[in-house]
Amino acid sequence: MADLVEKVLREAAEKESKFKTIEVEKEIDVIIDEGNLLVCDTNPIDFKLQKKNREDYLKDLSRDNTQLLINRIWQLPTHREDEVVVAELPDVKTLIPREKPVPKKRKATKWEEYARMKGINKKKKGRMVFDEQSKEYKPRWGYKRANDDTKDWLIEVPQNADPFEDQFEKRKKKKNERTSKNELQRLRNIARAQKTKVPGVGLTPTIAPSKDHLGKALAIAKKSTASIGKFTETLPKEKPSKFTGKKRKFEPNYGDVKKENTKQLDILNSVLNKTPILDVTQAVNAHVKDENRSSSKRQKTDKKGGKGGKGSKGSKNNSQPKKGKRNKR
């Protein structure tokens, strides 16, 4: 019996030698900062023990200081969260310098603000889903997926449908594209032979485009959208285009009745009246133009006669008396 008791006591002593106690005694109390989980030990170093076995000495020292920190953490207020005991750390006592400033909080995106307002929680869907038919976990998508109903894969096809109709349409479409491409190439060859250019779609480019040409091209590009340029954004410092085209103005369906009657009567009178309408200003301008033409012709004829024509010679001969005749007085 005594041997058994000694054996039990010996085993207990061996176990206690392996695991050290949680109570640590220090000559000088260490400084513990629970917020940073920091322990500052100001006790002097035993250089004799350090020289004998440096690794063991450092391990023992770090173990004792860690034990003191853990003992202090268990003295803090705690609460249970997801079946885990969590300690509430106090404020930081020691200010530790940083190389860079503390990063600022990222601004929430529009989607995050909308999700927070609507209460939407983003959850990642798992790949495996429980299949109620087979009572097993199967992939959410792909081959042998869960809750796969073969009826969704079937497409009702009428009995009189032609299975090759789709293929014929594709071939016909390809053929039409090929013929149009060949026709365009033929026109380009003819234009190259005649040293001309094939007109392109929209506004054709020029060698030296002017300012008006570029403005017209910009107006065409803006109106080529689905909204006909209604929602197209303007460029910075862009002036309103002058190539917008003229808008037709129509009179209202319900307007002034008297004005409409007078307008229709004037049209009827101009059609039925046989006597032409005389424009006085136009007639006067035409008369003045004819007078100017006639006066210019007279001046030209007078200039031609003053250069020594027949009339000039006759005047000289008439001034001198003929031989054999006497002047009558």
From TrEMBL:
Keywords: Nucleus, Ribosome biogenesis. It is found in: Nucleus. InterPro entries: Ribosom_reg. It holds the Pfam family RRS1. GO terms for biological process: endonucleolytic cleavage in ITS1 to separate SSU-rRNA from 5.8S rRNA and LSU-rRNA from tricistronic rRNA transcript (SSU-rRNA, 5.8S rRNA, LSU-rRNA); ribosomal large subunit biogenesis. GO terms for cellular component: nucleolus; preribosome, large subunit precursor. The keyword Nucleus applies. Residues 236-255, 285-329 are annotated as: Disordered. It comes from the Eukaryota. Involved in ribosomal large subunit assembly. Belongs to the RRS1 family. This is Ribosome biogenesis regulatory protein.
